[in-house]
């Protein structure tokens, strides 16, 4: 899983994921969630960062962000369960994306 901020160009995405990315650049005020498996994009979705309705719930990184340190995971640790849910009282295009780290034993 990769999160790319607004204005990231496709060439930069290609360099980061290690294979050619052929889609559009990330638009202003968006974060692109990109899921890969091997050398293939299996899912991508843009999250409108400034709409104040949809939320990325990445609480496991919150403490690290609060302390001003960069948060990262190694490939063997970066295994997530992602849930996309709707609040019944929210607008029709508003979602909550909840990321939970799955730990290997």
Entry summary:
With 105 residues, the protein is an alpha+beta fold.
How would you describe what is shown here?
The chain has 2 helices and 6 strands. The radius of gyration is 15 Å and the shape is globular. The chain has helices at residues 10-17, 59-66, and strands spanning 2-4, 30-37, 40-48, 55-57, 80-85, 96-101. The chain has 105 residues and is an alpha+beta fold. A 3-stranded antiparallel β-sheet has the order 1-2-3, with no helix packed on it. Strands 4-6-5 form a 3-stranded mixed β-sheet, with no helix packed on it. It folds into 2 domains: 1-50, no CATH class; 52-105, no CATH class.
SSE layout and pairing:
Elements (H helix, E strand, L loop, with lengths): L1 E3 L5 H8 L12 E8 L2 E9 L6 E3 L1 H8 L13 E6 L10 E6 L4
Write a concise keyword list for the protein shown above.
single chain; 105 residues; alpha+beta; 2 domains; three-stranded antiparallel β-sheet; three-stranded mixed β-sheet; 6 strands; 15% helix
């Amino acid at each position: 899983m990769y999160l790319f901020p607004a204005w990231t160009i496709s060439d930069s995405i290609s360099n980061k994921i290690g294979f050619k990315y052929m889609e559009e650049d990330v638009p202003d005020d968006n974060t692109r969630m990109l899921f890969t498996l091997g050398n293939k994009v299996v899912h991508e979705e843009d999250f409108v960062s400034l709409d104040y309705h949809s939320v990325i719930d990445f609480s496991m990184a919150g403490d690290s962000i609060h302390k001003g340190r960069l948060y990262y995971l190694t490939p063997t640790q970066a295994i997530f369960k992602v849930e996309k849910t709707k609040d019944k009282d929210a607008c029709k295009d508003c979602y909550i994306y909840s990321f939970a780290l799955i730990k290997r034993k």
